[in-house]
Structure formats: C-alpha cells, structure tokens
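Exam prep: given the inputs below (a chain plus zinc ion), describe the expected output before reading on.
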Amino acid sequence: MDPEKVIDEFKQTGALLEGHFQLTSGLHSNVYLQCARVLQFPEKAEMFGRALAQKFANAGIQLVASPAIGGIVIGHEVARALGARFIWTEREGGEMTLRRGFTVSPGERTLVVEDVITTGGSTRETIEALKSAGADVVAAASIIDRSGGRVEVGVPRVALATLKVLSVEPSICEACKMGDPAVKPGSRGQKA
Ligand SMILES: [Zn+2]
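Solution:
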C-alpha cells in the first residue's frame, strides 16, 4: 500500500490533522494523530490490516499480539488476514501483561502490531511480555511510524507510512513565535 494513500485516508477521516497543536504531553506539534478516527471504519481497518499482513505473508506468523487499547483493532485485522490467532497485552500495576486467560505456546511465531509507533515504548513492553510467556517474537509492525524511522524495538519493524513529526517545548515553538495560538486537538478534532 502506497504511503501517500495511507496518509490520505488519515487526513480524510480527521485522523491526521496539520496545524499547531498542544499535545497532552504539553509539547507543541505541527501534526496531530488520532488513529481511532480512521479505524472507526471497519473497511479501512481491514485495508490497513491486509496491507500489513502482506509484508509477513511468508513469515509463518501464528500469533498477532497488540498493546491495548490502541493496537487492538488493527492487530485483529492483521491476524484475520494472516489466519493467525490474536491476543492483546494490557497494563496491570503499570506493567504490560497478558490477562484474560491468554496463553502462548512455546516458540509460537508472533508479530506485535500497534496503530502508531512514537517512542516504541509500548511495542517493546509488549514484545517483552510475549517473550516472557515463551513466544518467538519475529517482528513488529504499525500503520504509522511517527519516529521518522528511528525507533528500534529489538526485532525487525515495518510501517505502512513514516512521518517525521516535530514536537517541541512551547518556549522554542516556531508557530508560537509567529503569534499563532496552539489548539488542543480534543476540542477541535472532534468537530471536524
Ligand atoms: Zn506552539
């Protein structure tokens, strides 16, 4: 799937907004991503899932695992396209764990899938949780990589589209210097 087509789908559904945003972290950014807004359309989730699955068609993936909540919809679609099983990890006392009676077979060939990878933190934690449970984690994937391709998670990693998103402290924000007020996307994003 062409990265431009992926970005177009995000823009059309308001999942990717361009402008001057104040993120929940307090940093200012020129891009705001809310994957849930594109994944609310099952046919789009299915399309992204198939496109990611295609990259692992011959990898013998038996299990797809995703961090909750953001990874669940896309992970499920990737698993469906691969004919694999699907489970998710979630935080318990701050630690990413398998709950709900989910189990992993020793050496089960596993792909970890997220909607968007930013720092790689939740993907790495999910990989660790799966490895601890005995899985053979062979790769990681996301729809969007917003690290500009920099993030390393210890296994080969792919994304359908890569963005280099600028996030800065308000004190050094160029848009602020031009007198442009920063928008909190929660308020504007939902009206779009
Ligand atoms: Zn700013």
